[in-house]
# Entry
Amino acid sequence: MPEKIDYDDKIPNNVNLSGDRRLQRALEGWQPKFLDWWGEMGPTLRTNGVYLRTAVAVGRDGWAHFDHVNVPDYRWGIFLAERDADRRIGFGEHAGEPVWQQVPGEYRADLQRLIVIQGDTEPASVEQQKLLGLTAPSLYDLRNLFQVNVEEGRHLWAMVYLLHAYFGKEGRDEAEGLLLRNSGSPDAPRILGAFNEETADWLAFYMFTYFTDRDGKYQLGTLKESAFDPLSRTCEFMLKEEAHHMFVGTTGVDRVVTRSAQLVRENDTLEIGACGGIPLDVIQKYINFHFTVSLDLFGGETSTNAANYYTAGLKGRWQEGRRKDDHRLTEGGTVLEKPTADGTWTTDEVQTLLALNLDLRGEYIADCRTGVKRWNRILEENGIGFRFSLPHPGFNRAVGLNAGFRVTPDGTIVDEATWAANRRKWLPTTEDLAFVRSLMHPVYERGRIASWVAPPVNGVNDKPFDYEYVYLP
Amino acid sequence: MEVSFDRHPDSYRHWKLRVDGPVAWLEMDVDEQGGLVPGYELKLNSYDLGVDIELHDATQRLRFEHPGVRTVVLTSAKPGVFCAGANIRMLAASSHPWKVNFCKFTNETRNGMEDATEHSGQAYLAAVNGTCAGGGYELALACDRIVLVDDGSSTVALPEVPLLGVLPGTGGLTRLVDKRRVRKDRADVFATRSDGVKGKTAVEWRLVDELAPRRGFTEAVAARAAELAESGTRPRDAVGVELTPLRRKATADGIEYTHVTAAFDRSAGTVAITVRGPREGAPSSVAALHEQGASGWLLASARELDDLILRLRTNETELGTWLIRTDGDPELVLAHERVVLENAATDWLCNEVLHLWKRTLKRLDVTSRSLVALVEPGGCFAGVLLELALAADRQYMLDGPPVDDEDSPERASVTLSRANFGPFPMGNGLTRLRSRFYRDEDHVDRLARESDRPLSAAEADGLGLVTEAPDDLDWDDEIRLVVEGRAALSPDSLTGMEANHRFVGPETVETKIFGRLAAWQNWIFTRPNASGPDGALRRYGTGRKAVFDRNRV
# Structure
């Protein structure tokens, strides 16, 4: 007889895993495949233990349990935020009705699709970041990379749990599909384009965790409003962890800017490449790229699917509860800026219900501005005149109204020749990328850090910067 | 707006046609801003009538201009998207007659692809390289073989029922169970789930024939296409016949071609169509026929008639009765048709001309207009042209001299030939004569014995080939009464009645598509559950859910 797996021990959870035979059976099939995937597609760097936070319960004490962990033995848990027995649907045509504890047959395909798309992004970023451990600028950063990776792994678990628990055989097939598609794979790529780009260097990693994971935050925020309560509760808990990823991104870019500013001041020149720093205009080009690729993840400005999901109660707006309207959006319009072939901008009024992607994108852009403000404050404190900015949302877009147009970062519509002549000023060039990559050397000694980035202000969990966050072989 | 069906590959907006030896690549690359009518964007390779007119043009040219092509790869030039089907906003904004006519034309084009596969040795291969939904999958279904990219996410789907509250309108349901023999329970599951089926399941359910990996997809398709081409029957070194632009003069009162004329009588609601027979002798050989190319009488007259039918259906919906006449020498008609009938088995062009006539006559069979053939002195209802009369709902033959020349010895005649006994089957698989005399094989045999000689009005009447044979004194009044009486009846009931009477006998995929599927679809289109203000079709794209009347009818 095979040894009985103690799921509560292996997989910390608050979904009564040990009492649910159907779920156990599903996870028995899936977990070995997940571990194979992690071994093959997860971080390349081998370690003897990483100082990681593990969620062992959802409460205040449970969600942040710190210890050195051998990564393959990480306890990927399944947690849903506490259930609110009185929760009601907050929007759409079912507004006011009790939320659903089971998937309504009518919405099965749509819900499954939403979960699969969300789930597909989680392992994708682990794949994209697979090689980064080999060039970490410090043990502190290395530890953060692992933390982000295991949490993406846990988010995958969370989506797989939903597929297994609520979507039957098809859900199990789709859960397996999440491991079969791989980032950048020529045969079976990830569903969304941005998740097939390699995260090639650490500046890109900070940018990714700032801009692209922030898209994830906003998507999770809309799913948190879902009438399907298990999805809502799952996403609510995931948002807590997503906040840490944002933190890695925000402080990561902070630290690069701080270091660059310091080098500019010390050498009295913006040309700091020679002294091992990343020039501010290269950072700006990274911002331009990662911001706009992330905007593509919001989909077209107008979307029938998003409207259908809203009406059905599957996916709400960011902070739906705080919006002061009828939460049905059957009336009312939203103004949309559109590029035209003659090189001018025009406006179009569309039904608000059809412009939900635009609404979410607007919230996201406002949030991104706070980061730029932060980074500019660092420049200001260092007495440097250079300022970062977010490019126009029409810049460098492959999805939506602006796809097919050439728009400069300041929002001018230009022809192909002008675009080609200036592209190098706006987006990272091959040389820029090669230069940044040339700075990427691993620094694995305690308390030391690479030349191009400043040390963090605080360590993890009140530990000092020179703490041995990662045990290396 | 007047719709024209003239297209040329040099100016396609939505397709790219590339011929590479025995394989042609027909790539769909729909221009979002290229809708035939303003008000919708053709996103994700969705199509409207304009896109389909180009497809039709391409399929015709492949048969005539590229005789060496044995495999046509139908694929998409857009990454990750094969075809999202008919554009929903276009459908939602279209009038009912426009939708019905659009579906009919798209059906005919897809049937034409199957016809090319079956009768021209030009097999269609669908290379589904991304999302393939609704009409997109129906387009693939019309191909001989379907290869689906195995990327873990691309699906084939028929989401019309769950998303739009209508049916897949271009043969999807029929081809699923009839052509591909998908089990009905699986077809039921498939056609009620909006997200479709992918990968191994799609193969297992017979929704597609095979999978090919994303990497090297084009190469895998090319290899399969080359393999199919190996077994093709088309000649290797043949020179094609260019389908030159039709000469056509269109005015408010009619359309004039070289061999075909249509005169409109708007107050009577009629079109007087005259097909003129050849004025010169038949080409002396197959080589001479090739030499004539697109100007050869049989090919030119078929193209003109085809174009006329399409234009009248689309642009002249109020002209409900078509009066069909011929004008010319029956002997010359028979001489011309003899060249292609005798050489169709060995010469690709003869074969193509025959099949073009077959398809054109089939168009007539499914046209929602009352068709009346008028057989008068000076006409040439012989052989292939007699099929025009047999396709009509009624045939009137003048028994006497021409109305305006009572001293003339000239009399009306009809002539049967082998053309009436096989080469031009209707959609039900039967000839028009066997449909007319359904399950009366003895009579059809007797008619065969009366072939190849002019039959007088009395003889034709006696043989059951005409409805009535009025004499010259009665003729004008008789025809006037018929036309006026017809014009007074409900156009809807006439369309339904005619479609029922025209197709006797067995069901085929074609008759099911134009009958069962189209009729149900057209009924559903007009129902409030689809087209009412709260119906699924009208609400699609608004983000609001349809409200259904739950009564099953």
Strands of chain A lie at 49-54, 65-69, 333-339, 345-351, 406-407, 413-414, 470-471. The CA atoms of residues 154 and 454 of chain A lie 30 Å apart. The interface with chain B takes residues 93, 109-110, 112-113, 177, 180-181, 186-189, 191, 304, 306-308, 310-312, 329-330, 351, 353-354 of chain A (CB under 8 Å). Chain A is about 45% helix and 5% strand.
